[in-house]
């Protein structure tokens, strides 16, 4: 087989696996030459062969585009049949802690990790800023670290919202230790022990942790994998009982990955405002969208200060520095006071280092690369799940972020699968972690942020075989 035939076969295989979708441009001739270490003439021969096979087509002055994707992932909504909606005590922290500990193992395939691949982050550059800052300042005045946080970082955060068409008052922003602290402080500001809090179902377990830590009760609301929380069911709930707050992830929800339509965001804000119920909005994946524009937020539709917006740089820039923020609306004074009482300050060096990076480096360029990578990874992961997993398996259709929600045949118990996979050094997120009930016992969450390689493909194939053996 000639070199150009090998290259053509490799690219065609990538198309079949879903790496390149129908209508998507494949690497330019020059890019392919550099990536594969072959001459431009070899690439032209390979692309000509692909064109003759009907895999790609040329567009004048634009390049080569996929004519027809061989693998069209058959995706369908992945959610459990909802049972009676009742408030429940929360205790999922033991399972989550056990799962996270297993992910920490160096030889484990981190398909169950809730964290993005750190190699995608410009952490070396940010560390350079931090080291330079530490050298310039031999000591720190604790007063400078007090809430709301570093003024320059607050300004940079407000600027990013403004650049995306979202008007934000910088005075509302409070810097926190990651989004987790922002969520906890926000919940503590609007509810008290024994109160009932409405959450999505399935929901990200950090939401359940916050409710559990504060001695509250969770009431789970059915959540559509494309449209978000069921507003009609939520309306019935708030009409019958007292709800202290509603906690949601309207953008690229973990684990479902949906982007809640704007009209439904407006409906949700209006419903909660009519009952004077605060909404705690977890928007940590806001920058990781697959479309052309950044999504709107619940905060965008809030006119009464009832939305407590929480976000961070942990999913898009650096996880090690744990820099997050809250925009708590009318509850700003309470959240700032609670921040001071809970952790006093957020360390200054990480705040200034992130602010310097946002001001001087190419954050948008970095994000474009990450979004493109995640979008391709999502398609590839879906295609591989459809290929290797047993009949009846369905997946979510992520619109952003880096996690995939997988519904397995009902006879497959996700905890048994988790344990069997762990014995083979593969981690997954069992569905039990995302609910206070057992509605998602045959669901799992997978992480597709790590680069695809032979080990990843082997792990997916092994998982599929294990799941098939349980059917």
Automatic annotation (TrEMBL):
GO terms for molecular function: DNA binding; DNA-binding transcription factor activity; pyridoxal phosphate binding; transaminase activity. InterPro entries: Aminotransferase_I/II_large, HTH_trans_reg/aminotransferase, PyrdxlP-dep_Trfase, PyrdxlP-dep_Trfase_major, PyrdxlP-dep_Trfase_small, Tscrpt_reg_HTH_GntR, WH-like_DNA-bd_sf, WH_DNA-bd_sf. Keywords: Aminotransferase, DNA-binding, Pyridoxal phosphate, Transcription, Transcription regulation, Transferase. It comes from the Bacteria. Gene3D superfamilies: Aspartate Aminotransferase, domain 1, Type I PLP-dependent aspartate aminotransferase-like (Major domain), Winged helix-like DNA-binding domain superfamily/Winged helix DNA-binding domain. It holds the Pfam family Aminotran_1_2. The keyword Transferase applies. The keyword Isomerase does not apply. Residues 1-69 form the HTH gntR-type domain. In the C-terminal section; belongs to the class-I pyridoxal-phosphate-dependent aminotransferase family. This is Transcriptional regulator, GntR family. It comes from Paraburkholderia megapolitana. The lineage of its organism: Bacteria, Pseudomonadati, Pseudomonadota, Betaproteobacteria, Burkholderiales.
